[in-house]
Design goal:
This is EGF-like domain-containing protein. Pfam families: FXa_inhibition, Ldl_recept_b. One of its GO terms (biological process) is canonical Wnt signaling pathway. With about 180 residues, the chain is mainly beta. It is built from no helices and 13 strands. It has two domains: about 120 residues, TolB, C-terminal domain (Neuraminidase), CATH 2.120.10; about 45 residues, Laminin, CATH 2.10.25.10. The protein starts with a strand and ends in a 15-residue tail after the last strand. The strands form four sheets. Strands 4-5-6-7 form a four-stranded antiparallel β-sheet, with no helix packed on it. Strands 8-9-10-11 form a four-stranded antiparallel β-sheet, with no helix packed on it. Strands 1-2-3 form a three-stranded antiparallel β-sheet, with no helix packed on it. Strand 8 and strand 9 form a beta hairpin.
């Protein structure tokens, strides 16, 4: 979809969305939120899940910030880190006992410990169905091997056809919008 989702709990806690190049930044959750620490996307149904360790909740909204629901709530949430979604479940790590938890995302009271791991802090689920099909995009390497014709960094815009070139620290983007000096 060409979007990046992230949390922030600086001056004003929020869940945000922007284009892959950082433009069109939009708050999708900015009320009744305090310390959102982990975020997971349901790419198929277009939902955003997050942990709020201060409010002790796991919540969900759609990509536009609508249809907000609390999945589960309670003291155990403040000990969770990392969040992943796959099929009917959310997966997270309990930092107290380093166990992987599975939470039914439709019935948040169904929580099961699956396994214990040493020193786990993050969790990811990789499954072929959740991987986006690769298609041509604006940041594909050109014949000299520069991604999207950019000399340093190529960032996708709001669609796979748009891109923005950026430079590494200490460099300035040239007038051509592609080369760094």
């Amino acid at each position: 979809m060409g979007k990046l989702f992230f949390t922030d709990y600086g001056n004003a806690a929020k869940v945000e969305r922007c284009d892959m190049d950082g433009t069109n930044r939009t708050w999708i959750v900015d009320s009744k939120i305090e310390q959102p620490t982990s975020l997971a996307l349901d790419l198929i149904n277009k939902y955003v899940y997050w942990l709020d360790i201060y409010l002790e909740t796991v919540e969900v909204v759609d990509y536009q910030g609508r249809r907000r629901q609390t999945i589960t709530k309670g003291r155990q949430i403040r000990h969770l880190s990392g969040l992943a979604v796959f099929e009917n479940y959310l997966y997270t790590i309990n930092s107290d006992n380093l166990s992987i938890l599975r939470i039914d995302r439709y019935n948040g009271t169904d929580v099961q410990a699956l396994a214990r791991l040493d020193n786990a802090k993050e969790i990811r689920v990789y499954q072929k169905r959740t991987q986006a099909a690769v298609r041509s995009h604006a940041c594909q390497p050109d014949p000299p091997g520069a991604a999207g014709g950019c000399s340093h960094l190529c960032l996708l815009g709001s669609s796979h056809k748009g891109r923005t070139c950026r430079c590494r620290a200490g460099f300035v983007l040239g007038a051509d919008g592609r080369s760094c000096k």
